[in-house]
Every structure is written in C-alpha cells, then in structure tokens.
Amino acid sequence: MPQLDTNTIITIGLVCGGLCIVGLVLSFGLQLVGVTLNTLMSFVGLFGTLLNGGPGLWCGCLVMLLACGGVVGVAVVVTACNGNPTAMNFCSLLPR
Fold it and tell me: CA 82, CA 17: separation in Å to the nearest integer?
C-alpha cells in the first residue's frame, strides 16, 4: 500500500479545488453566453421576420387606420375652425 506524504495530499486537494472552481466558472459562464446569444438571436429573428414581410398582414391595416384617423382629425379641425375661428389659436395657422 502506497504511503501519502503531506505534499501529495496538498496537491490532490488543490487539484480537486481547482477543478471545482473551473467547473463553476464554466457552468455560469456558458449559461451567461447562452442567454446572451439567445437574446441576440431573438432580435435577429424579429428583424428577419420584419424584413420578410411577416407582419405584412396587419401592417397594411394599421397604416390604413392611421390614414383614416388623420383624415377625420383634419376634417374635425377644419370644421371647428370654420364654425368659430376665435375658439382656437390653431385656427390662425389655417388659411381662410
């Protein structure tokens, strides 16, 4: 049976401790790298979806609703200014 001296026991202890520390660093480091890459690739995927026309089905409807709302808003402002020009300071910006 081999005999262990003090230097061998210290070396084995240091190697085991070093392996535990390296394992913890790798575990947390790889998890952090994975989360970072996952977040980055999610943004890249979202940008790719936008470029490929993924939300094109609802984007046209949204633009049309905004355009109709703008037309209605302009019509309301013009009729309010024609009815009572002194009611709003904004009416002074519109030609009569």
Answer: 84
- The C-alpha atoms of residue 23 and residue 25 are separated, in whole angstroms, by 6
The model's pTM = 0.40
Residue 56 CA to chain centroid, in angstroms? 20
Phi, then psi, of 48 in degrees rounded to 5: -65, -40
pLDDT, the chain, mean: 80
Same domain, 48 and 67: no
Q: What is the pLDDT of residues 28-49, one digit of tens each?
A: 999 999 999 999 999 888 777 7
Instruction: Count how many domains the chain has.
Output: 2
